[in-house]
Amino acid sequence: MSRIDEILAGNERAAARLMRDLDDRLPSAIAELRLLYPHTGRARVIGVTGNPGAGKSTVVDGLIERYRGAGKRVGVVAVDPTSPFTGGAILGDRIRMQRHATDPGVFIRSLATRGHLGGLSRSTCDVVSVLDAMGCDVVLVETVGVGQDEIDVMAATDTTVVVTVPGLGDDIQAIKAGILEIADVLVVNKADREGADRAVRDLLHMLELRHGSGAREVEIVKTIALRGDGLELLVAAIDRHRVETAGADGRERGRRRAAAQLAELIEEGLAEVTRAAFVERGGIDALADDIAARRTDPYGVAHEIIAALLSGAHRR
Amino acid sequence: MTSPARTVKKLRILVGKPGLDGHDRGAKVVARALSDAGYEVVYTGLHQTPEMIAATAVQEDVDAVGLSIMSGAHLTLFPAVMAALRERGAGDVLVFGGGIVPDDDLPVLAAQGVAAIFKPGTTTQEIVEWVERVVRPRAEARV
Ligand SMILES: Nc1nc2c(ncn2[C@@H]2O[C@H](COP(=O)(O)OP(=O)(O)O)[C@@H](O)[C@H]2O)c(=O)[nH]1
Ligand SMILES: [Mg+2]
Known about the structure:
The complex is a heterodimer of chains A (316) and B (143). Chain A has 316 residues and is α/β, with parallel strands linked by helices. Chain A has 2 domains: 3-246, P-loop containing nucleotide triphosphate hydrolases (Rossmann fold); 261-315, no CATH class. Chain A is 50% helix and 14% strand. In chain A, strands 4-2-5-1-6-7-8 form a 7-stranded parallel beta sheet, with helices on both faces. In chain A, helix 2 crosses helix 3 and helix 2 (12-23) packs antiparallel against helix 5. Chain A starts with a helix and ends with a helix. With 143 residues, chain B is of the alpha/beta class. Chain B has one domain: 3-Layer(aba) Sandwich (Rossmann fold), CATH 3.40.50. Helices cover 46% and strands 22% of the residues of chain B. Chain B has helices spanning 4-7, 25-36, 50-60, 74-87, 106-112, 124-141, and strands spanning 12-18, 40-48, 64-69, 94-99, 116-118. Chain B is globular. At the A-B interface, helix 2, strand 3, strand 4 and helix 11 of A face helix 2, strand 2 and helix 3 of B. The structure holds guanosine-5'-diphosphate and magnesium ion. Magnesium ion binds at residues 56-57, 93, 142 of chain A.
């Protein structure tokens, strides 16, 4: 039985190993993913983003519980940052979700960013695809949550949930981080704390300023994720977003998602080929030395490398 | 121009605390040290059952599982975790541990297949060296 057949038959170990190879960007794994691709496209992919500590993992834990209660199979991809200094990572989002660890209808995978910016790892979409092909009805994607430039999640998911908390005077922060633009549903978590209603009012006000007529209303949901309060309202809001965007909007989003993924794959592949071209020419440092010493010029070298790459591509 | 990530496989290690005791300081120190060594550490937190640890090890595709056991229940918890791993077709995942283990119990655990026990006072450097010596070759050789 091939690994793909094993995965389609629900073998978790096989799926987890393919995810590892995808994360390691092994070309053989990408080839396997092609065989899985026809089996994808059914899962509802929901992104959960927001500042560190806002309660993303706790919200995801609550969503798992709700969707499981509705009989759905749930996949989770939780991304944490790789240390740029050590290359290591502590993947701790699972701590909040471990009560679901042995539920056969739940598959949780932690990923490290491995230097990728934008709040997700390079492999996130691929790992989502594996979960999708395995038959997950819902896949929840938790981003790193650095607040800024987490726009990748919007391109990678059907619905983006942005988790905020009351207080901190972070209304202004939220605008700065561009977080309102990517939200399909806004959550004010930790509503057990003072200022939740004010936070909702502030967010509403900002949304009014921002959205002209015709724009879809972004729903705001108050939750106390730690106690599961408000989670059913959140599920309902996500559902309404799904229904309302099922038509042309949904197709548009699906197209954007495919385009973003395609562009990224091509970029990744070209970067790889470019690195190889540098190595063939004695490394980028040697090339740079020649340029800096004016023995060559950057324009000619770039032109030569591109021309060589293009003719090489023809030969293959 | 070859980045290390390209030539050196990224190891993934689960660090967890099975059983009832609530001392997670040691586990956190080890988790931090392993991540400082460049590994991806899946940290599960406290009060994990052997089944939770095994299910997590499978889904996260870790190369090794490190258990911190301070409760004295090592003679039951280690075999229970390893049995749960085997049941999920992951008997090849290395299991190691740390905590308070009397010397008399070390051969018993070794016979059960526990790959290493690090006693209190072991430096994190020694643990990393063990990972490089024992865990890495297996991870690199994996097909
Ligand atoms: N008071 C309160 N604390 C919460 C709530 N939801 C989560 N937390 C706590 O906030 C902290 C961060 O939660 P976590 O889900 O890990 O946040 P993340 O970093 O965004 O994933 C944890 O200590 C949670 O227990 C809530 O509704 N109320
Ligand atoms: Mg989290």
